[in-house]
Design a protein that fits this description.
Length: 455
């Protein structure tokens, strides 16, 4: 479903009775939805009634019967209406189930460093410790300690994304914030909501930050109540951050964070030490090291290499996928992030590159290999390579380099992908037809060389 108050009720209610919710992008096609339902072995699907057609197509190819609960009046035979359930006094509340910290609590999907999305097993302990770490006074910029002020958070970042789930929803509720949900980003609705509610903290991704800076309809007065903002999910341009301060107020504290679904949040700008252009310092109880991308040896401060992390809030592993788990978590328990960066002498992390293949579109993960597999299904495509290219509004966008068996147009490829990929996975970065793709002797695609072809 899109963001709404009932989403939070269902998410936290499921966790409290020992069930394991697996959030799904509500923009997914029926095929993408079916894949996650099969992979997660889901038993029940909660969906917006407006998405009935997608759900119906998905149910037709489901391996096992699925119980459907609709957010609204559904046309699907046998579907329950969530509003009728919540309002019916005859339906008893379920008993809260005792669970251990190690028990699975929630299973968002992530592509990790490569490959298609996989179920990330996050325990009750992992969620709890992250909420507590993030809420620590040395980190949290909110004013919840002052009982005369209540934080108000704008929940427009999708609740299927770990940023929306953990940082906005769970940390917000834990610290006493009021959540105002928006079903999606729509400029006029977003602006009107900013004007109506006096938000003291904003949760942003770089495209939203860019929108605030560029929109003439958002003035200094619109954000007069804002004291701080947190930007995450993708690197922030220092130029854009300073443009925000110039337009609105130099006193607005800009926090940046770093993490990944597999390890949740590991770094944050300390509440007393703004450092624009970095991802902040380690949260309590989190360990990190930088290793050489060539030798795997540990590197000292200021040296650039792959970021490796250990945290009491990290995942148990990928759901029923030992090979993918072992490719990310080494024998000593370190998660290899696939991000390249360094810690400065003050302990601030700076991300400069990545070894992982993922494309970040509006802060959302996109797996190039997933797109490639679908494009190869086109009868005129011989081979394809997909990489991320810079995009003014989205940060990055997928671009395909295609070797065709016979003549095929860009338009035909775009049409072919329409009902197979969610909008953020489509080839917004363009299509180029080529005679060859750069590969190793063993046939592995050299994405870095392919990316250089876009420069």
């Amino acid at each position: 479903m899109p963001n709404c108050p009932e989403y939070v009720v269902i998410l936290l209610g499921s966790i409290s009775i020992g069930a394991v919710p697996t959030p799904v992008n509500n923009n997914y096609t029926a095929a993408e939805l079916a894949r996650q339902l099969r992979d997660s072995k889901a038993k029940l699907l909660v969906s917006a009634a407006a998405l009935d057609s997608n759900v119906t197509s998905c149910l037709e190819c489901a391996e096992d019967p699925l119980l459907v609960v609709a957010h609204g009046t559904s046309r699907i035979p046998g579907a329950f209406n969530i509003f009728e359930i919540l309002k019916d006094p005859k339906i008893p509340n379920a008993d809260i189930v005792e669970v251990s910290n190690k028990d699975l609590a929630i299973m968002p999907y992530s592509s990790g460093t490569t490959g298609p999305p996989k179920g990330v097993e996050l325990s009750h302990g992992a969620l709890s410790v992250n909420i507590l770490m993030f809420s620590h006074p040395s980190v949290f910029c909110g004013s919840f300690a002052d009982d005369k002020i209540q934080n108000i958070y704008l929940s427009v970042l999708p609740l299927f994304h770990i940023y929306g789930i953990l940082v906005v929803c769970m940390v917000g509720l834990h610290t006493g914030a009021k959540l105002v949900t928006l079903p999606a980003f729509e400029p006029s609705l977003y602006i009107n909501t900013l004007k109506k509610h006096k938000f003291d903290m904003l949760h942003l991704v770089p495209p939203l930050l860019n929108f605030l800076v560029k929109s003439p309809d958002i003035t200094r007065e619109t954000l007069s109540s804002v004291k701080s903002m947190l930007v995450g999910a993708a690197p922030v341009s220092p130029t854009e951050a300073m443009a925000f301060k110039d337009k609105f107020s130099e006193d607005i504290f800009i926090q940046e964070g770093y993490g990944m679904t597999e390890v949740l949040i590991t770094n944050m700008t300390p509440s007393a030490n703004e450092r624009i252009g970095t991802s902040g310092t380690l949260l309590p109880n989190v360990m990190a090291k930088i290793i050489s991308t060539d030798t795997g040896e540990d590197l000292p401060p200021t040296h650039t290499g792959e970021v490796c992390l250990k945290s009491p809030g990290m995942m148990n592993g990928y759901f029923q996928n030992e090979s993918a788990t072992s490719s990310v978590i080494d024998k000593e328990g370190w998660i290899h992030s696939g991000d390249v960066g360094f810690f400065d002498e003050d302990g601030f992390l700076k991300i400069v590159d990545r070894t992982k293949e993922l494309i970040k579109v509006k802060g959302l993960q996109v797996s190039p290999s997933e797109i490639e597999d679908i494009i190869r299904q086109h009868r005129r495509v011989l081979d394809v390579g997909v990489v991320g290219v810079s995009h003014e509004r989205f940060g990055e966008a997928p671009k395909a380099f295609i070797i065709s068996k016979e003549e095929v147009s860009e338009e035909e490829i775009h049409r072919f992908l329409e009902d197979k990929l969610a909008p953020h996975k489509r080839l917004t970065g363009g299509i180029s037809f080529v005679d060859a793709l750069p590969k190793t002797a063993s046939g592995k695609l050299l994405r870095r060389d392919l990316k250089n072809m876009t420069l």
